[in-house]
Design goal:
The chain is α+β, with helices and mostly antiparallel strands. It has nine helices and 21 strands. The strands form five sheets. A six-stranded mixed β-sheet has the order 10-11-12-9-3-13. The chain has a six-stranded antiparallel beta barrel with strand order 14-17-16-15-18-19. Strand 1 and strand 2 form a beta hairpin. Helix 2 crosses helix 7.
C-alpha cells in the first residue's frame, strides 16, 4: 500500500492514516506554491434522495438548501436543539432530489444516526456510501492544470463551490471545486469503488501523481492538512467547534439562514443573536518566539479565553492560533498574550485567514468567471 510504504502512519478517527510523507513543511509549501494530493477517503459520505430531500435537509441543517442548483455545493452545519454544532460539512446537490453530504470522519456514525432519527416524517432515503466511494483532495494553484491532463471534461468550467461529473484515468469521478486548505483545488470522488476492491481508486491516485510530476506534486498527510487549514482560519471539529459551540460564536453566521422555516436549533440561535454572543472565535498571531497550542490561556490583564488550535505557520514563520475570547476583547488589532510554558507571550488579534493568497480562485467580471491571470488582463490595476 502506497501510504504504508512511503508515509509515517498514525491512527486518526479509527483509521490508519499518513501524518506525513517527506515532511509537514515540504508538503504544506507544495500545496501553497504548486500542488498536493491528500487521501481523504476516511471522511463520511452520505446520499440523501427522495421527494422530500430538500425540505428534510433544510430542517436538519442551518444553510439554505433551496439556494442550491444542480451541481453546486455549500458549506453548512448541523446543530442540536441548543444551537450547538453537531458537525460542519459540505452539501452538494447532484440532481433536483439527490444530495451528497460530506462530513468529518470522527462523526460518521453520529451523523448518520442523527439523520436517520430525524427523517421519520420525510419521504427520503439516506444511504451511507462512505465505503463505496474513494475520495482525494487535489489542492494548490496547479490543481486544475494537473487534473485536466486526466479529465474527460473541461474542469475550468467548474467554478468555486461548483461540481461536475467526469472521467479521470478512465474511472467515473465526481469533481467538486472545494477543499480544506485555503487554496484552489478539487475534491475528487471516485464513484462505485468498494474499499474491499480499491484497485481503480489506486490507479486514479497514481495517475494524478504521475500527471503532476512536472508541477511538483507531493502526496500530503494529516500534518500538512492541519497546518494548511489553520493558516486559512478553517475550523477543526472537536477543537474549534463542537456541540457546546454555536455557529454564531464560531464566526460561521454566514451559514445560518434564520429567515428559513423552522430548522433544528433555530430558536436557540435566534435568541443568541438577539442577546449577543458572550465569546467569539478569533485569530491570534504571536509576535514573540513561541508556538501556541490547544488549551493554552489567552490573557489581557485577566484571562479572557483559551486557544483551540495552534501551530508554527510554515508560510508566515511565526506562531498562529485560533482561540475563543470574551466578546469585549475580540477586537481586531488588539494585543493579547498567550501563556506558553509559564511565559506571557505577546500576540495580536487578526482576521482570518492568517495569510493573503497570491491569487483568487475565480473572479466574476462582467457576468463571467475568470482566473486571476485573465482578470489582470481585463483590469490591469486589479490587485490582491
Amino acid at each position: 500500500m502506497f501510504h504504508k510504504a512511503r508515509g509515517e502512519m498514525v491512527t486518526f478517527a479509527g483509521f490508519e492514516m499518513p501524518i506525513w510523507y517527506k515532511g509537514i513543511i515540504n508538503e504544506h509549501m507544495a500545496v501553497r506554491n504548486a500542488i498536493g494530493i491528500f487521501d481523504i477517503t476516511h471522511m463520511g459520505r452520505t446520499l440523501v434522495t427522495g421527494p422530500d430531500a430538500e425540505s428534510f435537509l433544510n430542517y436538519v441543517t442551518t444553510n439554505d438548501v433551496a439556494a442550491l442548483t444542480p451541481l453546486s455545493a455549500q458549506y453548512s452545519t448541523i446543530c442540536n436543539e441548543q444551537g450547538g454544532i453537531k458537525d460542519d460539512f459540505v452539501l452538494s446537490r447532484l440532481e433536483t432530489g439527490k444530495f451528497l453530504m460530506v462530513y468529518n470522519a470522527a462523526n460518521r456514525i453520529k451523523n448518520y444516526s442523527w439523520l436517520i432519527s430525524q427523517s421519520k416524517t420525510f419521504k427520503v432515503k439516506i444511504e451511507d456510501v462512505s465505503d463505496n466511494v474513494a475520495m482525494f483532495a487535489v489542492q494548490g494553484p496547479k490543481a486544475e492544470e494537473t487534473l485536466q491532463k486526466l479529465s474527460s471534461e473541461d474542469l475550468s468550467k467548474i467554478g468555486r463551490f461548483k461540481c461536475g461529473w467526469t472521467k479521470l484515468a478512465r474511472a467515473d469521478a465526481f469533481a467538486s471545486r472545494t477543499g480544506y486548505t485555503g487554496e484552489d483545488g478539487f475534491e475528487i470522488f471516485v464513484w462505485n469503488i468498494p474499499l474491499s476492491k480499491p484497485e481503480k481508486a489506486v490507479n486514479v491516485w497514481n495517475a494524478i501523481l504521475d500527471a503532476g510530476q512536472k508541477e511538483g506534486i507531493e502526496p500530503c498527510g494529516l500534518g500538512a492538512r492541519d497546518t494548511l487549514r489553520l493558516e486559512a482560519g478553517l475550523c477543526l471539529y472537536g477543537n474549534d467547534i463542537d456541540e457546546n459551540t454555536t455557529p454564531l460564536e464560531a464566526g460561521l453566521g454566514f451559514v445560518v439562514k434564520l429567515q428559513k422555516d423552522n430548522f433544528i436549533g433555530k430558536q436557540a440561535l435566534l435568541k443568541q443573536k438577539d442577546e449577543g454572543v458572550k465569546k467569539k472565535r478569533v485569530g491570534i498571531r504571536v509576535t514573540e518566539r513561541g508556538i501556541p497550542r490547544p488549551h493554552l490561556e489567552v490573557w489581557k490583564d485577566i484571562k479572557i479565553g483559551s486557544v483551540t488550535s495552534g501551530t508554527m505557520s510554515p508560510q508566515l514563520k511565526c506562531g498562529i492560533a485560533i482561540a475563543y475570547v470574551q466578546t469585549e476583547y475580540a477586537t481586531e488589532g488588539d494585543t493579547v498574550t498567550v501563556k506558553i510554558r509559564d511565559k506571557q507571550t505577546k500576540g495580536v488579534i487578526v482576521k482570518f485567514p492568517f495569510y493573503q493568497r497570491k491569487a483568487a480562485d475565480r473572479i466574476v467580471l462582467f457576468g463571467k468567471e475568470h482566473n486571476f491571470e485573465e482578470a489582470q488582463k481585463l483590469i490591469p490595476t486589479f490587485k490582491t
